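Quick question: who can interpret this fold?

. . .
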Amino acid sequence: MTVILVLLTFAAFILLDWILEEKPVVTPMPEVAATHARVTPLLDSVEGFHTPANVRYHPGHTWILRERKGYARVGMDEFAAALSGGIERLELPRSGQWIRQGQRVIAVTRQGERVELVSPTEGEVVEINEEVLRNPALLRQQPYEKGWLFAVHVPDEESTSRNLVPTNLVRAWMSEAVHAVYALQPQAAGAIAADGARPAADLLANLPEIPWQSNAAEFFLTRNHEKPAAAGMARELQS
């Protein structure tokens, strides 16, 4: 009888201990929504122009952002967008087209004048930003975000990066471009800083005596002549 009581008591203690024992709470892992990366870099500023540190720049003022291996987005930097001003028409390469680095594949038309820009990379165009085609103003409003132009499959990222502006020279390169606009005419300096430290929406809008088409082509490296003084550093970076 005593043995039975001992066994029952022992069993009761085991049962009580099991009831009082804290059970670990298993928290389910939150579901991660599948999202497509967009161009939303942290912004840096050079002479009042947004110049994100995590994108790479072509000397002709286009940019490329690597989103994943072999896939990158392309756009115009804020300086190019401000120099282009009120764009009436935007032309982009078609999806599936193979483009070369330095090839003229982007065109903007303003007041009936057309200027081209070059691709910062080589590869196959895999996506076009239809929204910016419908609303070119996005180029000036959000040049690195909603104003991106097209996406490219880049099979050889190493070779195309060689002809981009070295990261440690981006600040000097952008600064020179801005001051080259100052040099076009003294009042241009006021146009650039029309809103405090921020550049005007259209750098040359109030300077009709300055030929927009030829000067924009110089900065975009698409004007066919000897090395211009206004884009000296950019030309040297390309050579």
The two ends are 102 Å apart (CA to CA). The CA atoms of residues 136 and 204 lie 18 Å apart.
